[in-house]
Amino acid sequence: MSEGDHTHGPWADARLVAGLLAIDPGLGGAVLTARAGPVRNAWLHLYHAILNDDVVWRRIPPGVSDEALLGGIDLAATLKSGKAVERAGLLETIGTGVGVLPMAERAEAGLAGRLAVALDSPKPPVIVALDESAEPDEVVPEALSERLAFHIDLSSVALADLKFGGLELDPEILAMARMHLPHVLNGGAERALTAAALALGIDSLRAPIFALRAARAAAALDGRDEISADDVSLVARLILAPRATRLPTAEEEDQPEPEAPDEAEGAARADTPEGDSDDAPAPDDLTEITTEAAKTAIPPGLLAKLAAGASAPKSRGAGKAGAVQKDGVRGRPAGTRRGDVGQGRRLDVLATLRAAAPWGKARRKGLARFKPGPSVEVRTEDFRIKRFKQKAETETIFVVDASGSLALNRLAEAKGAVELMLAESYVRRDQVAVIAFRGKGAEMLLPPTRSLTRAKRSLAALPGGGGTPLAAAIDAAEAAAHAAKRQGRSVTLVFLTDGAANITREGEAGRERALAEARQAARQLRAAGHAAILVDVSKRGAEAARDMATDMGARYARLPNNNPGALADLALGAAA
Amino acid sequence: MTLPFPFPAIVGQEEMKQALLIACVEPRIGGVLVFGDRGTAKSTAVRALASLLPPIQTYEHCPYNSAPGTPSINGHDRNRGGEVTKATPVVDLPLGVTEDRVVGALDIEKALRKGEKAFEPGLLARANRGFLYIDEVNLLEDHIVDLLLDVAATGENVVERDGLSIRHPARFVLVGSGNPEEGELRPQLLDRFGLSVEVETPRDIEARIEVVRRRDAFERDPDAFCAEWEEPQAELRERIASAQARVNNLEASEEVLRKASELCLNLGADGLRGELTLIRAARARAALDGDERVEIKHLKAVAPSALRHRLRRDPLDEAGSSTRIERSLEEVFVA
Questions:
Q1: ipTM value > 0.85
Q2: From the CB of residue B1, how many other CB atoms can be counted at a distance below 10 Å?
Q3: Contact A41, A122 (CB under 8 A)
Q4: Rounded to an integer, what distance in angstroms lies between the CA atom of residue A532 and that of residue B36?
Q5: What rounded mean pLDDT belongs to chain B?
Q6: CA of B312: which chain A residue's CA is closest?
Q7: Assigned fold of A170-249+286-301
Q8: What's the Cα-to-Cα distance from A11 to each of A18, A34, A163, A516, rounded to whole Å?
Q9: Are the folds of A10-154 and A394-575 the same?
Q10: Residue A140: exposure state from Cβ atoms within 10 A (0-12, 13-18, ≥19)
Q11: Which of A415, A433, A431, A462 minimizes the C-alpha distance to A564?
């Protein structure tokens, strides 16, 4: 990517990001996507080196407890010394310095929330979130990534690239830029950046706000008094492009019309200057430059998806840290056990005292035995921890045969069942997913979700028709079920099929081979031990479906057609 | 300490602003739920509230923000310090918070070192007489949400754990926000929030630019920006204070009451809670408008926020709840 010209390319950009963050720490920080390795270390080292010596630099352990993060009493040290030992919270120590959060994609929602509050405070830290995600379901919690200006991907940087620096980042130059920063003028860049963000489908207004700030820092770094077109292109590439959710269209008309406003929103709109988008000025040149710059910088994977018309991957609110079921720190109390406090674990004071009581005076040495004093002495080994049980979430995965002529009906039925399940009040923390199979393979139409809003949107367009790749579908179902189990959910699979198959795993036609593969996949599924139901969707009940159910170890069921309610009941019955 | 972003400088989002102001004037409304996309000024609006409300008189070290002259709570009087003026508290409740931190727990240090059974107050105590803000309330564990709503409704935190038996006042306005794409709230919980608003990111480019401009101006020089907005800010403060003083003397006419019932019946909004909230909100709105009586226009203005989340959900009806309310408003007020 960076042959010949070393002033461009991901490494030069990454260096620049470090410089901009050093000039304006108010940019919040960066999400750094890269595996642990020399490239990532080189960036961290570079960033650390250009900061002033008095800037605090700390790692935030991914499983950091509330006490460690926010400060509190160090219990073990307190008991040992007999004096209250206060421990400063990590956030307090960091102050306006830098916190490096490794494995950010596994950070819990709670940690992300606390960091978000810190970032919103008047004296925010800089957070560098190291994203090492390997699987698509691992994302840095959005509450956090949203508040960090830069999202940089170092995975394509080669070791050889590191030798070339591009722009010079000298502490003296940076110090000058910092002094210069308050005097930089926007020069109308806010319009171009806001328009470009909108054209790229970026809803959040934090993006253009960050972009404007970063553009000023870039101008200051260059020693200019006003943001230039180059600065704007730069920040469009660095900040807007990674957040794009759609490709900008050439004409304004192509953009989706705002939905019909309800009464209150109408009032909100009337209040804004120039309520009508008709008399909005045509995007000027700068906007076009900006949008173009962002467009060329959209990461290739994302670009392919956007070009295919699919919506950008929606990240979840929280990373998944592998749900803790047995030894949870939340939920209903379930007895006590021996152990250390910390990591959010709660000391059971009564049980601890009970454990210490029998030792009483025996622990007091020598003459101390005869002195007045507390008759119970608590030692670390007496600590008893409260245990909690958390109810496991459930996930229902519908696997729908979308091949052939009946596809639309079946998909509509599955869609109805999904929406009913999500709408019902008792499906509280339960998730639903939909896999459809047709043509050459299986596709996750609706990734696991609890949101009715999202389900409605994802299932709005229902593809149908083509061959029946049953084996691929069973494989996909097993993978999804495995992923759900790993996250601590219990899984129910609901297959809507007639048991027929005519496409092999390789995507080739061939009834016999396809069926043999499907049955093999079914037996593997049974071995994995997931709860499954097979709903026979053939008109009169098919022997093949019954056999498939037996192979899967699934319950066999037949349902009246077009009855999403009955289907939802069946799935819920199995989950209960 | 730097000032928060001034409330009147928030562009658009009128429904959310109205709901929050109503909650300031009439805390009994039972909390505000704000659902919508990220980056739509939800957190900004809530954090801006503190500087709109008159500061409270309390003791310097009182963990419960008790008003001067009130008896001390749970033996925390010994060194609660002198009387001071503090800003109305706006307390953040982070996700993943443990029940201990919310309700308070046995003070372990005192228990182990002095053998004293002392209570360490939690976030509910700190939020007393102010606001409790939960971002991403839809991701909070159910048992914590239950607990919060319960305390918010009764105004008292009752602690029965670790051998402690303690109660303390916890009167606060609960403000929850979230993104419905990431999961929804159970209807049982939804219904217990007084008002519910849906915020959308502004689609109008000029409005968006104005947001960016103001936010940027604020970040560059918070003090100058706040000074610039001090006048509207002071006006709004005045409006809230006078509305607070007048709200309980405002009467709703027979006609308003009847129309409120009709509206709820027409929408099939369950329970009397909706009707009560509707009237209270309309009254607060009238007080904010400086009007002498509660009129139909006030009712209409608050109906979407007061009822949106109380409609029985029909997954097969594609029309959003806002549309249904609008339809119903037309039907009821056509006469």
A1: no
A2: 7
A3: no
A4: 36
A5: 82
A6: A423
A7: Helicase, Ruva Protein; domain 3 (1.10.8)
A8: 11, 12, 10, 50
A9: yes
A10: buried
A11: A415
Q: Do B203 and A277 touch (CB under 8 A)?
A: yes
- The DSSP H or E segment spanning B34 is strand B32-36
Q: Does A263 score more than 50 pLDDT? A: no
Report the CATH fold assignment for B248-333: Helicase, Ruva Protein; domain 3 (1.10.8)
Q: How far apart are CA A139 and CA A31, in angstroms?
A: 11
Using CA atoms, how far residue B35 sits from A341, A445, B100, in Å, is 37, 25, 27
CA distances from A256 to A302, A453, B38 (A): 20, 18, 19
B141 vs A: CB within 8 A: yes
CB–CB of B208 and A198 under 8 A? yes
- Strand A150-153 and strand A29-33: the pairing is parallel
Nearest to A440 by CA among A505, A497, A343: A505
Query: Cα angle vertex A494, ends A434, A470, to 5°?
Result: 80
Q: How far apart are CA A429 and CA B141, in angstroms?
A: 9
**Closest approach of chain B CAs to the CA of A102, in angstroms?**
19
CA A239 to chain CA centroid, Å, is 18
Q: Tally Cβ neighbours within 10 Å of residue A562.
A: 12
- The distance of Cα A259 from the centroid of its chain, to the nearest Å, equals 27
pLDDT at A101 over 90: yes
Tokens 């443990």 sit at which residue?
A: B98
pTM higher than 0.90: no
What letter would DSSP give residue A253? G
d(CA B44, CA B39): 9
Say yes or no to pLDDT of A194 above 80.
yes
Q: How far is A419 from chain B (nearest CA, A)?
A: 6
Residue B273 annotated as catalytic: yes
What architecture (CATH level 2) is domain A10-154? Answer: 3-Layer(aba) Sandwich (3.40)
Superfamily of domain A394-575 in the CATH hierarchy? von Willebrand factor, type A domain (3.40.50.410)
Give B183's contacts (C-beta < 8 A, 6+ positions apart): A317, A449, A450, A451, B138, B139
B321 and B196 Cβ atoms separated by less than 8 Å: no
DSSP state of A393: P
User: Are the C-beta atoms of B119 and B104 separated by less than 8 Å?
Assistant: yes
